[in-house]
């Protein structure tokens, strides 16, 4: 445990994290745009039905479903992009675990692992 | 109106929402859901799902600009994220149980509070003496200023932690970033300097929203056809907004946006009470 915080290291870790987040957002936005173009070319003239909540079909509402049904269907590609977007903050938390561990900051390794566990709990559909 | 026309209109609306959200500091997510439900007749649950996705995009996209300024306190952020993520899971689970009309009413009330609090000026105070819990958690830090690094001491940790749980719950329940409430919890309850509060808040918003996103996804709330124009619009709008912000006089804009938010709030409450949502 370091008694004096090392500002240079903290700043460097934060810069890496910021770049990680930016890369994740750029990748996600690109995939969503690609899927959106395919979706609108194929289904743009149909009448949407957003006024009535029906819930999404099974292959669009879980990680396994989205990853298992990758194809050139626009809606599926958009959903894959959104999954990448949701995972960028998760990757940030995972990276922070490593950063705190390198700094031998055991208290914060524990707290960060707790946050990571909650995220995994949510993303796997409420059970580990 | 067909899917293409609707997507273009929603993209434009989200772009404006993201731009104004960045310029006023209120965040674009807060007006996306009222816009989708009131103007485009979208079901509240789909609207909340699309809005939450845009919140993650804005938070992650803005992080790079914030880190450069060196104000973020990673320890405060990570410690408080324990509270916000547990709250977010709680709130998102509530969303899957509560009727849409009740959610609309809560949304309206939260909108009104946000408009009120954002109209108040930022506080500034002398730094407090060290606090036992904050010292144990090593939350005290420093931030760069014109006169060199400024030390600050954090206090009110239990109250701040509790408020963060509430902020997380509202974020998960309504698909918003809850940035205003996170800043209040840090700035007012914990005496974290205002600039550190705002940047650390942005840092926390994405993680909080990701915690609800899993539950929304499994509940079938995230529709790709709807989330696509909302996410791309809000993201572009907020990035442009952040870039022109230093050159913009925001006082009048804030007042105008606050008024828009208040009107939307009343509409949401009215639609909720009369059962139209």
Outline of the structure:
The complex is a heterodimer of chains A (128) and B (277). Chain A is mostly helical and 128 residues long.
Structure characterization notes:
The complex is a heterodimer of chains A (128) and B (277). By secondary structure, chain A is mostly helical. Chain A has 4 helices and no strands. Chain A has helices spanning 7-43, 63-68, 74-102, 106-123. In chain A, helix 1 runs antiparallel to helix 3 (74-102) and helix 3 (74-102) packs antiparallel against helix 4. The radius of gyration of chain A is 19 Å and the shape is elongated. In chain A, 35% of the residues are buried. The mean pLDDT of chain A is 86. With 277 residues, chain B is mainly alpha-helical. Chain B has one domain (3-70, 85-120, 168-178, 194-273). Chain B contains 11 helices and 2 strands. Chain B has helices at residues 3-24, 29-40, 44-69, 74-95, 100-118, 132-136, 157-174, 179-189, 194-218, 224-244, 251-273; strands at 141-143, 150-152. In chain B, strand 1 and strand 2 (150-152) form a beta hairpin. The longest helix of chain B is centred in the N-terminal third of the chain and has 26 residues, at 44-69. In chain B, 61% of the residues are buried. The mean pLDDT of chain B is 89. The chains are: A mainly alpha (128), B mainly alpha (277).
What labels describe this entry?
heterodimer; A: about 130 residues; mainly alpha; 4 helices; B: about 280 residues; two-stranded antiparallel sheet; 11 helices; 2 strands; about 75% helix; about 0% strand; globular
Q: How does the major sheet of chain A shape up?
A: none
Shape of chain B: globular
* Rg from alpha-carbon coordinates of chain A: 19 Å
Query: What multimeric state do the chains show?
Result: heterodimer
Rounded to the nearest angstrom, the distance between the terminal CA atoms of chain A is 32 Å
In the sheet with the most strands of chain B, the strands line up as 1-2
> What helical percentage do the residues of chain B reach?
over 70%
Flag low-confidence runs of chain A.
none
């Amino acid at each position: 445990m370091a008694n004096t915080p090392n500002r240079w290291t903290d700043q460097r870790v934060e810069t890496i994290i910021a770049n990680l987040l930016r890369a994740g957002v750029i990748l996600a936005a690109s995939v969503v745009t690609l899927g959106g173009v395919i979706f609108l070319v194929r289904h743009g003239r149909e009448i949407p039905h957003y006024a009535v909540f029906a819930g999404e079909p099974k292959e669009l509402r879980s990680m396994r479903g989205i990853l298992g049904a990758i194809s050139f269907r626009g809606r599926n590609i958009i959903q894959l992009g959104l999954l990448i977007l949701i995972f960028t903050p998760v990757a940030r938390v995972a990276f922070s675990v490593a950063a705190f561990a390198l700094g031998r900051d055991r208290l914060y390794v524990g707290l960060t692992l707790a946050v990571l566990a909650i995220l995994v709990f949510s993303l796997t559909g409420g059970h580990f | 109106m067909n899917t293409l026309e609707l997507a273009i209109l929603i993209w434009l609306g989200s772009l404006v929402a993201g731009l104004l959200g960045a310029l006023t500091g209120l965040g674009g997510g807060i007006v996306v859901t009222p816009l989708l439900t009131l103007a485009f007749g979208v079901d509240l649950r789909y609207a909340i799902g699309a809005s939450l996705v845009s919140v993650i995009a804005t938070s992650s996209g803005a992080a790079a600009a914030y880190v450069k300024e060196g104000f973020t306190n990673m320890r405060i952020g990570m410690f408080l994220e324990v509270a916000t993520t547990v709250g977010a899971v709680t709130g998102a689970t509530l969303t899957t149980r509560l009727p849409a009309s009740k959610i609309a009413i809560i949304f309206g009330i939260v909108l009104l509070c946000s408009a009120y609090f954002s109209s108040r000026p930022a506080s500034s105070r002398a730094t407090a003496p060290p606090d036992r819990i904050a010292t144990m958690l090593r939350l005290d830090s420093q931030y760069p200023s014109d006169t060199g690094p400024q030390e600050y001491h954090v206090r009110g940790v239990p109250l701040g932690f509790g408020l963060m749980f509430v902020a997380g719950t509202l974020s998960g329940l309504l698909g918003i970033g809850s940035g205003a409430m996170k800043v209040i919890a840090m700035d007012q309850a914990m005496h974290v300097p205002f600039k550190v509060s705002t940047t650390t808040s942005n840092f926390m918003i994405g993680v909080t929203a990701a915690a609800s996103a899993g539950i929304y996804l499994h509940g079938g709330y995230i529709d790709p056809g709807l989330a696509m124009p909302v996410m791309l619009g809000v993201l572009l709008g907020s990035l442009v907004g952040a870039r022109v912000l230093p050159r913009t006089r925001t006082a009048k804009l804030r007042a105008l946006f606050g008024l828009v938010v208040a009107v939307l709030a009343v509409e949401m409450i009215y639609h909720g009470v009369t059962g139209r949502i």
